[in-house]
Design a protein that fits this description.
The protein contains twelve helices and ten strands. By secondary structure, the protein is an alpha/beta fold. It has two domains: 189 residues, D-Maltodextrin-Binding Protein, domain 2, CATH 3.40.190; 122 residues, D-Maltodextrin-Binding Protein, domain 2. Strands 1, 2, 3, 4, 5, 6, 7, 8, 9 and 10 form a ten-stranded mixed β-sheet that branches. Helix 2 links the parallel strand 1 and strand 2.
């Protein structure tokens, strides 16, 4: 995701609009569905926000991990939940912007069955390569890969995941012929990268910083709009010569489509307040994600733009999942 788009849309403001407090309040604990296993940035971001939301809403917000099918299982649970504000979803780039373009069948339609609530966070990524290649800059890697079409492979955390589509975007911009190797999560992919079984992958910086700083892999470029404070010596993708390959993963809060407007508004205000709360901001920064909030309307516009962008990347790459 391009943070300049966020700024242009007004999504970076912690409180997007000053509005009167609606009367709705939850009457029981809220289920916060994270459509992936515990431990990743999606799960971490949701848990940080959930703690503060529970305080402001007066009911616990309980994170529930329901992974599988690129996030579609968790998304379907929320799409079919009662639209009363007591079940919400942490949606991410792949689930809301890419899956509709690559899965032959989905049990729900994100546009029809889910209602935007608020942006929640962004997470920058970084291009890393195995040390066995002996390259230390993106230019060196591109030269090597172009000289060996089809020889090298790149890993991802799964078909259609942001680590996959962002890598495809870079591959397209650099004109590289490489083989995609999908994994179930990033852990096994990183192990293979360190061992030299794959040559490249894109990782969220929060998860990659340890391996980079330990010298286990070589970091070539951060794909966000600027250098990242966790890896300040690594150039941005624009500095490395590929500004059109800029990409950032993100998370946002969604509700079932028929949720009444006052309920959506109250949930949105709760997310906005959480993201603006100094202890929450600190926890998110420590976890390597940036808190970003929005109104439901701003999020809806952003999702349309992201779907168009990543749908085109998937089409050009020929990504399909049966």
């Amino acid at each position: 995701m391009n943070r300049r788009i966020l700024l242009a849309a007004g999504l970076a403001a912690p409180f997007a609009r000053a509005q009167a407090q609606p009367a709705w309040a939850p009457s029981r604990p809220i289920r916060f569905i994270v459509p992936f296993v515990a431990g990743g940035s999606t799960d971490v971001g949701a848990r940080i926000i959930a703690d503060r939301m529970g305080e402001t809403l007066g009911q616990p917000v309980i994170v529930e991990n329901r992974g599988g099918s690129g996030g579609n299982i968790g998304g379907d649970i929320v799409a079919k939940a009662a639209p009363d504000g007591h079940t919400i979803l942490m949606g991410v780039t792949g689930l809301l912007s890419t899956n509709r373009h690559i899965y032959r069948q989905m049990a729900f339609d994100p546009d029809r069955d889910l209602a935007p609530v608020s942006m929640a966070y962004t997470a920058d990524m970084v291009i890393v390569v195995t040390n066995k290649l002996g390259v230390r800059t993106l230019a060196e890697f591109v030269t090597l890969a172009r000289a060996n079409p089809g020889k090298y492979s790149f890993g991802s955390s799964g078909h259609g995941a942001s680590t996959h589509t962002a890598a495809e975007l870079f591959r397209q911009q650099a004109g590289l012929d490489m083989v995609h190797v999908p994994y179930r999560g990033s852990g096994a992919a990183v192990n293979d990268l360190v061992a030299g079984n794959i040559e490249m992958m894109l990782m969220q910086i929060a998860g990659a910083a340890g391996s980079i700083n330990a010298g286990q892999v070589a970091a070539l470029a951060a794909t966000g709009p600027r250098r990242h404070p966790l890896i300040p010596t690594v150039p941005s993708i624009a500095e490395a010569g590929y500004p059109r390959a800029e990409a950032t993963s993100w998370g946002c809060v969604m509700a079932p489509a028929a949720t009444p407007a006052p309920v959506v508004l109250r949930l949105s205000q709760s997310v906005q307040e959480a993201v603006a709360h100094p202890p929450v901001k600190q926890r998110m920064e420590t976890a390597g994600v940036d808190g970003v909030a929005s109104t439901p309307e701003e999020l809806a516009a952003f999702l349309r733009a992201e779907s168009a962008k990543w749908g085109e990347v998937a089409r050009q790459a020929g990504i399909r999942v049966e």
